[in-house]
Task: inverse folding
């Protein structure tokens, strides 16, 4: 993207004043370097989002923004239901509530080192990953609905995970307002045996070493210590979320004219929040959020089983769990007024600042943990929400690096086997059912996540706390 | 008029599928093959089990998305891959049969799961020399 098309606000913030059918401005948080790397489609998509009815303040793009479906990935938009605001299936995306959670192991990288290959093999064997894999849990109709209503709480009640985990998950592990009855039989059929599976593509389970600490106070509160190994899990609502996205996107595309909505791009498909379709989608989408929370909780349980077997006495305590494809009703202060808004975060992480009542008591003074995933060979980061972020982009931050090149380009440039060997020589063990899949997900196919983190930190969206380096990566 | 073929086209995060053929039906068949080829080499997939698929849409483009999404649903819920397709179109009604087999991770080495077919770069229509084209981006 050419920065000349944007109005410079600061070295980390750019603005597009309303033109054409835009109702509000668009704001992009990024350095000039990141703007130059951004696809022109981000400009087109974020200005399209700004045309939607009931949008409050501005359409926002995070430093990792890239070409998505309707919304850019890395897009944030909040709507007021009483001002004709909409909910958009495209604005949430296909992988509803895809997210990241990170767990302590209480072990150092040195302690883990001799067991690394065995841990990699056992985790790969125990946690279903890749196309066609099925989970240990089979859900009948009643259990499916209980899972869609209960989220991670459902999993804990069934013996997967622990009660203490729930406090460390957004919504305390259970999204209110879920309506399993709004989820189609097809979506449920896709999910019957997918709970506790990692999926594929950019989803992973990693063992990571804490290699840098930037904020001692927040790190201490999160109990992050240099040299400690953590486990991070990145996945979402699996087939159920994909099917909900597919079905409601179609319905919203067809119904848009009857709601008087002119779509600049069909992928922006939406419906008024105060409409039967909008309400039906919200109920289904919240059930999708619970599916993702349950899925990550069951995978956590499987991970704990492997550790208990190989390293008896180890406790994997949850640091935090974030979702980055959601629409949530939240209270935000706009022009001095407190308002209830429907905040869409598509490839963006909620980053509530210190003191927010939704945060667990023991983390309330440092702000919400923001977990940013890397890609196999590259670093991941832990940040926290800030006071400054409260007044920007409805307390939101980036979610990852974003691709720099297509899957095709990646497979032309790298071979899976060579990549696995090269990463092994750097001490990073990869386990994956597909070598072509590994090539498509090559670290070099992604943008430099560090530049994205620096931009988010300097823009005040979130503050960096720690840097994590991968040791073992289970790829779906 | 050229014979039928499929190809992929690039998208920054995902993958585009394009089917081309002498008829609308042929283009839909080729687009489905292109989708299988994202996951594995279609030649490795035996056409042993048949699945019937029907859908109906208000226009040709939504019909293509519906067709591919119906296949994605069958692939995901039956843990299958498909390599042969027969498509009959009557207006905006599609009746089809897909043949394939259960995923065999060792033999198929499946690369990635497909989440959904999208409206991005979605086109169904005839090109200048009369051949039909059916394409869209699929989310992986």
Result:
């Amino acid at each position: 993207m050419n920065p000349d098309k944007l109005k410079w606000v600061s070295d980390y913030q750019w603005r597009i004043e309303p033109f054409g059918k835009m109702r509000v401005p668009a704001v992009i948080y990024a350095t000039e370097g990141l703007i130059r790397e951004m696809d022109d489609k981000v400009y087109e998509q974020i200005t399209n989002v700004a045309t939607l009815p009931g949008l409050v303040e501005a359409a926002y793009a995070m430093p990792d923004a890239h070409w998505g479906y309707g919304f850019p990935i890395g897009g944030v938009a909040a709507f007021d239901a009483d001002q004709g605001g909409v909910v958009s299936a495209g604005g949430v995306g296909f992988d509803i509530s895809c997210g990241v959670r990170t767990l302590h192991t209480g072990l150092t990288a040195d302690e883990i080192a001799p067991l690394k290959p065995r841990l990699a093999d056992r985790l790969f064997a125990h946690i279903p990953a890749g196309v066609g894999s099925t989970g240990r849990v089979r859900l009948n109709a009643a259990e499916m609905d209980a899972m869609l209503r209960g989220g991670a709480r459902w999993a804990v009640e069934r013996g997967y995970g622990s009660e203490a985990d729930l406090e460390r998950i957004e919504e305390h592990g259970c999204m209110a307002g879920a309506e399993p009855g709004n989820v189609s039989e097809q979506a449920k059929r896709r999910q019957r045996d997918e709970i506790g599976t990692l999926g594929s593509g950019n989803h992973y389970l990693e063992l990571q070493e804490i290699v840098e600490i930037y904020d001692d106070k927040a790190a201490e509160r999160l109990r992050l210590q240099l040299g400690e190994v953590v486990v991070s899990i990145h996945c979402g609502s699996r087939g159920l979320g994909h099917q909900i996205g597919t079905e409601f996107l179609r319905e919203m595309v067809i119904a848009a004219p009857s709601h008087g909505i002119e779509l600049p791009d069909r992928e922006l498909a939406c419906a008024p929040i105060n409409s039967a379709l909008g309400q039906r989608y919200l109920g289904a989408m919240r059930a999708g959020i619970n599916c993702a929370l349950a899925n990550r909780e069951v995978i956590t349980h499987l991970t704990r089983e492997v550790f208990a077997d190989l390293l008896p006495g180890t406790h994997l305590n949850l640091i935090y769990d974030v979702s980055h494809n959601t629409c949530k009703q939240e209270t935000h202060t706009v022009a001095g007024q407190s308002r209830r808004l429907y905040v869409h975060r598509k490839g963006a992480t909620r980053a509530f600042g210190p003191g927010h009542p939704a945060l667990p008591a023991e983390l309330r003074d440092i702000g919400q943990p923001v977990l940013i995933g890397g890609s196999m060979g590259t670093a991941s980061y832990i940040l926290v929400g800030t006071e400054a972020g409260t007044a920007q982009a409805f307390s939101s931050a980036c979610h990852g690096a974003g691709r720099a090149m297509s899957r095709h380009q990646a497979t032309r440039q790298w071979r899976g086997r060579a990549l696995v060997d090269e990463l092994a020589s750097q001490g990073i063990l990869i386990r994956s059912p597909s070598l072509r899949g590994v090539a498509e997900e090559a670290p070099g196919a992604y943008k430099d996540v560090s530049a994205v983190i620096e931009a988010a930190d300097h823009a005040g969206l979130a503050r960096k706390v720690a840097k994590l380096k991968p040791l073992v990566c289970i790829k779906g | 008029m050229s014979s039928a073929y499929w190809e992929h086209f690039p998208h920054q995060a995902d993958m585009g599928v394009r089917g081309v053929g002498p008829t609308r039906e042929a283009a839909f068949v080729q687009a489905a093959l292109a989708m299988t080829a994202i996951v594995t080499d279609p030649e490795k997939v035996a056409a042993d089990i048949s699945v019937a698929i029907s859908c109906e849409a208000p226009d040709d483009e939504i019909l293509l998305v519906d067709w591919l999404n119906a296949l994605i649903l069958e692939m995901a819920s039956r843990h299958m891959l498909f390599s042969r397709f027969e498509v009959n179109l009557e207006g905006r009604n599609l009746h089809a049969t897909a043949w394939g087999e259960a995923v065999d991770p060792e033999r198929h080495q499946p690369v990635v799961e497909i989440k959904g077919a999208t409206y991005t770069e979605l086109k169904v229509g005839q090109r200048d020399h009369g051949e039909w084209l059916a394409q869209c981006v699929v989310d992986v």
In short: Chain A has a mean pLDDT of 95. The CA atoms of residues 196 and 295 of chain A lie 5 Å apart.
